[in-house]
Input
Amino acid sequence: MTNQETSIQMIRDTASDWLVRMETGELNEQEESAFVDWLTADERHQDIFAEMEQTWLDAASLPTEQPSDNIEADVIAMPAQASNATSSRNADIIEQQTTTQSQRPWWAWAVAASLMFGLISAPGLWLSINADYQTATGEWQTVTLADNSVIELNTDSAIQVSYSDNQRHITLLRGEAYFDVAKDPARPFIVTAGDVNAQALGTEFAVQLTNDEQTIVTVTEHEVGVSSTDSASEKPMAIVTEGEQIAYQDTFSTIQKVNHTQATAWRTQRLVFNDQSLQSVITELNRYHRGHITLYGDHLKTQKVNGVFNVKDPVATLKKLEQSLPITVTQMTPYLIVVSSK
Amino acid sequence: MHEALTQAFHQFQSELLGFIRKRLPDSSQAEDLLHELFLRLERYPSDKVIKAPRAYLYRAANNLIVDELRKKKSYDQRFVAAEQEEAPVHISPEDINHHQQRLKLLDKAINELPEKCQKAFRWHRIEQLDKKIIAERLEVSVNMVEKHLRNAVKHCQQRLSEAEETTFSDSHSSKSSQQRHHQ
Output
C-alpha cells in the first residue's frame, strides 16, 4: 500500500465515522462544529464524504430481498453501450429506486443527478499517479536526485520531478518540501507550487502549499527568485534572500523576516512555537496527526502558545499544552480530538 | 419551509458562500449554487427536527459543489465528443446503464462483506431499521452495529470509486474508437 493510499484510507475512516454518527444519531454542538472544521479542512475530505454519502443513499434503492446469483457477476467487464442488454433484473432495480425515493432525505435530489455523470475519482488517487515521491501524514522522506540536489519531504506531501537538458523542474503537488540545490548554471532549478514559480539562485529553501491554497517560500541560504505562474516575464517578480519569507495567495505578500531555523524545524522533527495563536498551532498539529484535531470555543483561538514540541507525537504535544493552558483535550473517537475550554 | 433550516441558512450564508467559493471561484456561479441550496431548503419537509443545522447545510452545500464539479468535468468531455460528432449533448443510454451498473456493483460490494456486517447494512439502509433493533436481531451491541455500518459504507465507497476509474478509462477509450469509426 502506498503512502497516498494510507492517507486516503484514513480520510475514509473519518468520513464513515461522521456519516454514521449523523445518520444514526444527532450531533451535539461541539461535534457539529468539529464536523464542519473537518469537512472544510481539505478538498479530499469533501470529495470522499460526498461519495460516501452517495453510496449510503444508493444502498437504500437496492431491492429488499437477498440478491440472487443471476445478477451479472462481473459488471465492470460488461461493455457500457447497449441499452437493450438491460436485463429484467435491472428493470426491477430501477423500479425499486423510484418507489423508495420518497423516503430519501432532501439532499438526495442534489446528488441523484450525479449518478448520470458519475465520473467520480478521489483527487488523491490522481495525485498518486502524478507524484514521483510522496509521504503520508506523520511521514518524512529524503530524496537525492540525479544531480545530487536533495529534497526533504515533510508530512503529507507530494512532488513531481522533471529534469531536462536545459531545466530542472519540480512541482510541489501537496504539502511542504525543503530543497538543497546542487549548482548547475546551465540548468536552472525551478519549483512550481500552486501559482508560484520559485527559481533557486544556488541555494537552500523551503516551499509550502497550505490547505487554504497559499504558497509560502522560506529561504535559508542565499537567494530565490519568485514569480507568479501567470506572469509572462522571464524576470522574477521578487528576490527573497536568506532569513526571509514570502507568501502568495492571489498576490504576493510583502517579504517578511523569519527565524528560518524555526520555520524549517520540522526537518529535525521539531515544532517551535513563539507566541503563536492556539488556532494556528492546532492547524499546524493537524498536518502531522493521523485523524483530526478541532478547536472548540472562539475565545481560545487567540490564546498564545510558546514551546518546542516533537512533531512525531501531536497527541503528546496536546497533552503538554493541556497542562499549561486553560484547555481540555478530549479524544472523542479514534479519529477525532476536540480541544475545548477547561 | 423548514423554519430552523431557513433561519440557519440566513445565519451561516456568508460562511457557506466562502466554502463554495473555495472550489468554485467564479463568484456568480458560487452565488447561483448558494441560491440553489436555498431552493432545496424550501422543499424540505417542515415537520422534521434537525438538531445540527449548520452541519446539515455544509453537507448539502458539499453535495451540490461536488456534483457541480463532476457535471462540469463530464460536460467538458461530452462537449468535445459532441462537437466532433456534430450531435447535441444529451443523456445517452450509456448514462442510464451506468446507474444500473453502479447499483449492481454496490450489491456485489455488499456481498463481499462479512455476514453480520452485510445484514446490519442492508437492514439499516434498505429496510430502514433502527440501530437498536438491528443490535437486538444480531445479538450485538449498538456500538458494534455502528462499526458494521461504518465498515460497510467504507468498503462500498471504495469499490465504487475503483470501478468509476476503470469505467472512466474504458468509456473514454471506447468513445475515441467510435469517433475513429465515424470518420
